[in-house]
Amino acid sequence: MNIQLIKIEPLSPSLAKGTPRPPATPENCYWALAIEDGGKFYFWGRGISLPISEEDYVMVKANPKLFLGSTSYYLNLRISFLIQNNCDFER
Predict the structure, then answer these.
(1) Contact 50/79 with Cβ under 8 angstroms?
(2) Average pLDDT value for the chain
(3) What percent of the chain has pLDDT over 90?
(4) Are 43 and 34 in contact (CB under 8 A)?
């Protein structure tokens, strides 16, 4: 098992000024885990665990910044959807 702690947060305002990004709120700034276990990959954040692809696992570890088009942005959207719909896992 491989576990890596990563900090999810919006891309700095001083970088890529024209790139849309979410606001720096508690929902968009948190510690998360990228997990590899026996060839399966997971993303854990805000109390939700998501099964993810190996590519998503590599990408979120390489760039955990939130901006439109980033892997972390789309994982964050999936987590937000599950929280808003009172789900504790993805179906």
Answers:
(1) yes
(2) 90
(3) 73
(4) yes
Q: Considering only CA atoms, which of 41, 40, 35, 45 is closest in space to residue 7?
A: 45
Structure confidence at residue 91 as a pLDDT band (50, 70, 90): very low
How far apart CA 33 and CA 2 sit, in angstroms, is 10
CB within 8 Å of 26: residues ≥ 6 apart? none
The tokens for 58 are 């590599």
Q: Give CA separation, 15 vs 21, 46, 48, 76, 83, in Å.
A: 11, 26, 29, 20, 30
> What CA–CA distance (Å, rounded) separates 24 from 42?
24
Is the pLDDT at 20 greater than 60? The verdict is: yes
pTM for the full predicted model: 0.86
